[in-house]
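Incident log, structure service

09:12 report received: a user says their structure output differs between two submissions of the same chain.
09:20 pulled the input from the user's history:
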Amino acid sequence: MKRQVVGFTLLELMVTVAIVGILAATAIPAYNTYRQRTYGSEAIVMLKRILDAEIMYFLENEKFFPEAGQPAINIFNDDDPSKAEINQVKNALKILIPVRHKLDFTITTVAVLGEPLNMVTVFSAGSSFDLFRGVTSITGTVDKTGKINIW
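09:34 re-ran on a clean worker, output below:
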């Protein structure tokens, strides 16, 4: 009567580990690219939401938030969710700025030729990724006529 061997040989295990290693080595760069695109998409969506909220705020109050001459609103990815600036934006613009993401936000209003111009910039937090081909920030402006420019 022959004895049956149950299990894998060392060679079979080594080949399996090598295949899994090759698959992981090719999947990690693809995952990083996917993650960068996700952050970039989130940045664009948030920029458009903030600019749309600024238009609504201007229509209701005939001024932008914050007003020209007031300090810029800066919200960073590592801020506490109960930070005063986050609540100011939430109360004024009726939107919630996400924290604990990889994005930083700056909202300011400047006077250009005597007319208010609201400017919103979304930055990638840190240098661990680029939003789009080397660009680490996206800026958008809205004027009192509601014209939006994004670059």
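09:41 both user submissions now match this output. Likely a transient worker issue. Closing.
09:42 reviewer note: The chain has one domain: 10-150. Residues 10-150 form one domain.
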